[in-house]
Amino acid sequence: METKSRIIETATALFQLKGYKGVGLNELLRECKITKGSLYHHFPNGKEELLIACLHSLNESITAQIEGIFAHYPTTLEATEAMIDMLIGQYEKTGTIIGYTVSSMVSEMATLSAPVRTACAELYYNTQAIYSKKLMAEGFTESSAQSIAVSLSALVEGGMMLCLAQKSSEPLRTVSDVLPKLLRN
Amino acid sequence: METKSRIIETATALFQLKGYKGVGLNELLRECKITKGSLYHHFPNGKEELLIACLHSLNESITAQIEGIFAHYPTTLEATEAMIDMLIGQYEKTGTIIGYTVSSMVSEMATLSAPVRTACAELYYNTQAIYSKKLMAEGFTESSAQSIAVSLSALVEGGMMLCLAQKSSEPLRTVSDVLPKLLRN
DNA sequence: GTCTATACGACGATAGAC
DNA sequence: GTCTATCGTCGTATAGAC
Which Pfam families match (chains A, B) (predicted)? Predict the structure, then answer.
């Protein structure tokens, strides 16, 4: 069981960094220090089964982390700013954004594999639920809260894409600056 | 020359649909009804050179189309709404978003190939310049206009990603509804 | 549960005839 | 400028020993 979770952890990072199709099994095995036999023992249906396991794992960890941040800050604005700050910090430390986006998997696989698409959609749904809940606690109506929650996740996901293209954390900083406009009534 | 532009056109659509790594040369050749010899005559440096040509071509067509829309509507709000409406229409007609995003190329290649990353960054830069110019004409300060322009492109790009994951045009509709919050002073 | 060995197709790219 | 033929590599996946 420890091997299985190590595979998932390593594969998740690699998939986020290089995309699903960009990671060969050999590279993954080298990184995990295991062999094909072991991989196919844990994931009999191969690479796509592994990807879905990675997405479920990402879903849990991202949801937990965002929930933690949102529990710690009194307002949605402060919580979202803190979340983006964390993304920026991670980007500046590592040069990429690992652990907080499934964009590469969405754009690569959403039109090709229904199970993968569903797993990505669940992740977006969960984070939007966290945003939405806090917005309603602040007095937004349900429909307004849901609209803003969807927009927040679009803004953050798009902001990460811009950072990758520009090779700079500036887009996420800008997005963070604009949040007050979006979050006032 | 006619062959070359047909290759670019076909390849652009395929890359956007299935991602760069997801499109094999054989599939592309079949679709274009040409052979390897011809492809490598026009693109001696192979697939990545073709990708960059596609990105430049996309850059021109997207910029022109957005410029057209922004010239036609009096306010940034109306223009952006019209642009998103067009994306939604295209999505509902074809089931995917082809011709208006480079997300898949960014997330697949941005960390791997500098020329590809640069070509994507240029596209974002050009569209943001269009937004920004119109915002300034409406009285926004330069720094405010630029912040909003970056956020608009993040919002649209992220919105498309959510649509693909959810298999629904709803996220883009929601994003469109939220625009007034972002665009008022 | 992990290993080695292997199958076999697809990949991007090249050479050379026409 | 377009064709065919072919190269070497790497892709995912499987079989079977330990």
Answer: TetR_C_13_2, TetR_N
